[in-house]
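Aim 2, interim progress: modelling of the 2-(butylsulfanyl)adenosine-bound target.
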Amino acid sequence: MERDAVEKEILRLRREIEQHNHAYYVLNTPTISDYEWDKLLRRLQLLEAEFPDLISPDSPTQRIAVEPAEGFRRVPHPAPILSLANAYTDEEFLAWLERIRKLDDRVNAADFVVEPKFDGLTVVLHYHNGLFQLGTTRGDGETGEDITANLRTVRSLPLRIPLGEGSIEPPARLVVRGEALIFLEDFSALNQRLEEAGERTYVNPRNTASGALRQLDPALTASRPIRLICYDIIASDGEVPSHQLEVIDFLGQLGFPIPEGVVHAKDPEQVLDAYQSWVARRDSLPYEVDGVVIKINDILLSSDLGVVGKDPRGAIAYKFPAQVVTTRLNDIGLNVGRTGVITPYAILEAVEVGGVTVRQATLHNFDFIKEKDIRVGDRVLLKRAGDVIPYVIGPVLEARTGDEPVYRLPKRCPSCSEALEFSETEVALYCVNSTCPTQLIRNLEHFASRSAMDIEGMGIKIAVQLVESGLVNDIADIFNLELEDLLSLEGFAEKRAQNLLDAIARSRTQSLTRLVIGLGIRNVGETVAADLARHIGSLEGLSHASQADFEGIEGIGPIVAQTIHDWFQNPVNMRVLTKLKEAGISPEMAAPEESSMVLEGLTFVLTGSLPSMSRAEAKAQIQNAGGRVVASVSGKTSYLVAGESPGSKLQKALDLEVPVLSEEDLLRLLENRPTP
Ligand code: IVH
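Predicted structure of the complex, ligand included:
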């Protein structure tokens, strides 16, 4: 290629890669697969290698940077947090081996460790005297973002090491590298829960984990099922193992979650066998894995080999074949959820991804279609990972003919043809017709589900029959069903009908919490339902409570309070409640017990260093006693706990007349003794 043409191509590639980077790292919505991104970067690397004078410092090959999210403190890493070079074929793996063999004879006799390459978010965890003190993201590899508060909510992260008896002593200072991720099963359950609550679902596990850890509210992180897997030691001031295989074992003994199925390969053939067996297992793994990482077992040899750019020579990622394909979007279908929320899905030309034929895929929500400008008739990129429902990544713009019409939002419900409405508080489209048959079917299914009234045998099929036959027009109707009614339905003989009636009868004594869950109020899941039951005590009470009453309950914000209030004031729902009462369904809550959570309802801010415990410990103790710890002082703060060199928070607390406690006062409060 001529120099001019190469220069043009280089500029084009840089722009394209930067756009994809922005979408991936900043917006958390990838526009292409990692595989294709790697291909672009490699092409750019090749061209730049041919014309090195065209390399500029802002080329993505020079600095693959991650934009810092605003609001987190930047923390320098104790050692560079390196990345990995990729191989896609056996030849590329062997070429890597050949290169490092030439650099160091010892490679000839080297053995290897083959680990899964987790598709998550890298985290760096600092332990001091066995206590978790600081956790950061990888950031640009030199400095990361301090996400300690969020990481503390990750249950598999040991807050203290060693965990468990009989384990080894850790060095006084230990910095560990791991990957934060969401397991596929947890991801599906999370999305199902969100969908049922009429909330927005997530696109994929990786971005959900990354988003949840890189936002400013630890409570939100805590509500996401994030897990951790650790595989490396970044720094320590004590004795640590000299081989990677032992490092993993060592981390395991300290109580860290470690990778499963790690293979010790004695030679390159065994490495390739291990790769193949990982490829074969790929779809049955509980998490997303996009390849394996092959590491020289001997850590000294590995580090002697040095680093190229940000990639250590002593390890390489051997990626799996892509599970991303393209196919035609034949149409956009619409689902009606229990709460009336309308969600779009893709109707596709059948295509095989990872051994499975896919005809439908999720499109998440209408904003997603708009943002990506997805049009019927487009070729679209489709990804499938494990058991997660396949999803559309976006359109292939180059394949457009120009005849594809811009997608227009539906105006009418596909089930009942009533006009659709936008909700004020959420960016979702709703069918607000309370007699919409599809909604009623889903409502009924939910009402009978295991977490609600737990009516055995009443699944979606029977819900459809009951609604379509006209026997049931709202959830209360099921309590008036009689044997003859059920016998008129297809597939119901005496025994089956009686079993269902018995199951319905048994559900009459379910708790108020279960009944409230069953009502299917938007944003009211198990926790909020339990709070409502505990604080208000009866359906009658809930019907008469004001929005302010709901807002007064800890954990219920103004938006949820309004949704609940609106639900109970809706005339159709009021009729259902009356019918339930007439049918004898009116559970009440026993009087609430005196709480053992001595700090419940109180909000704390910590500042300065405390004499006998770290701030993290103080925080944990407050949280364990039901209190909340927030970052800054406001009029709503109950107490400021101040140690030595307290900083500006103390002045603010004094200005706002927020009471200031010493560590001793705090300990007294925790023991429920009066503060002087
Ligand atoms: S080792 C110097 N091991 O993959 C060692 N990385 O593409 C570099 N990753 O940024 C990392 N699983 O976040 C290593 N078993 C594993 C891994 C792993 C996932 C991630 C890591 C890294 C990325 C490189």
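The chain is about 35% helix and 20% strand. Residues 63-69, 591-595 have pLDDT under 50 and may be disordered.
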